[in-house]
Amino acid sequence: MIRRSLPVLLLLAACASENEGSMPAEAAAPKEAAPASLTLTALDCGTIEALDLGIFDVGGAYDGQTDTLADSCWLIEHEDGTLLWDLGLPAGLVEGGPMTDGPFRVSLTRTLADQLAERGVTPDFVAISHSHFDHVGQPEAAEGAVWLAQRDEREAMEEAAAADETGSLATLLAFETESFDGERDVFGDGRVKIIEMRGHTPGHSVLWVDLAETGPVLLAGDLYHLDRARELRTVPTFNSSEAETRASMAAFEALAQETGARVIIQHEDADVAPLYGTTLR
Ligand SMILES: [Zn+2]
């Protein structure tokens, strides 16, 4: 018997699937041979100059240093709908120019709405890793989407909204919302999951995206801000709980190791900026 290589078998399976109508039902390719289409696209949601990197570690690992951080947003396109992950810096920075606020100098060259319009995408769902100003800045870009909200984070936002001069929190809080606790399987097939990993904020979450070609990807939110933060396991001074952060880092690393997931540190400029506009499949 001639042994066929796997690609040949896959090709044959694909042909069988196309000709399904004229073939007996038992000859059709099994369903799992055709996974749902799923892509992940990196979008530019601004730049943050950290003027005092020291605040990114309770142990002082970065004292006296400065750095440039990317601010990335992510578009997930699944055959059953689209999800926008994180909302970046406020759109007003495009017209207004760079702004210094405390230890950060922030800037934005393109709005999220423009980048979505360019792709002809209107998100069905929106979710945030957490509610810090650099992750909720452009809720208007997701207008009409359903917000998949980690309940603990949403509650913290309700308390913080009155003091939020940008109005971003109030805008997002007014969205049609589906709240959940812990984990949310966005499209019901296990391929896109919001997973709570608290400690940076009370309901901080990461995103799992299981791509066909790339393999599983973990978007780390602000569990880590820099590649070296992952190596050093540094904990920012402004986190809501150091103990919860450390427990989340352990859970995250266990998941990454067990699944071989590619980890993306959303603020790591060197990793993320070259990916802007790129679609992973
Ligand atoms: Zn943050």
Provide an overview of this structure.
Helix content is 25%, strand content 26%. The chain has one domain: Metallo-beta-lactamase, Chain A (4-Layer Sandwich), CATH 3.60.15.10. The chain is of the alpha/beta class and 281 residues long. Strands 1, 2, 3, 4, 5, 6, 7, 8 and 14 form a nine-stranded mixed sheet that branches. The protein has a five-stranded mixed sheet with strand order 9-10-11-12-13, covered by helices on one side. The N terminus is likely disordered. The chain binds zinc ion. Zinc ion binds next to loops.
Rounded radius of gyration (Å): 21 Å
Q: State the helix count.
A: 8
Which architecture name does CATH use?
4-Layer Sandwich
Biggest sheet statistics: 9 strands, mixed
How many structural domains can be distinguished in the coordinates?
A: 1
Q: Looking at this structure, what is the CATH superfamily?
A: Ribonuclease Z/Hydroxyacylglutathione hydrolase-like
Please provide the count of β strands. Answer: 14
In CATH's first tier, which class applies? Alpha Beta
Task: Determine the structural class based on helices, strands and strand pairing.
Answer: alpha/beta
Distance between the termini: 35 Å
User: Helical content, roughly?
Assistant: 10-25%
SS strand fraction:
25-35%
What binds here, in terms of ligands, is:
zinc ion
Q: What order do the SSEs take from the amino end to the carboxyl end, as H and E? A: HEEEHEEHEEHHEEEEEHHEHE
Question: Judging from the principal axes of the Cα atoms, what is the shape?
Answer: globular
Uncertain segments = 1-31
CATH names the topology as Metallo-beta-lactamase, Chain A
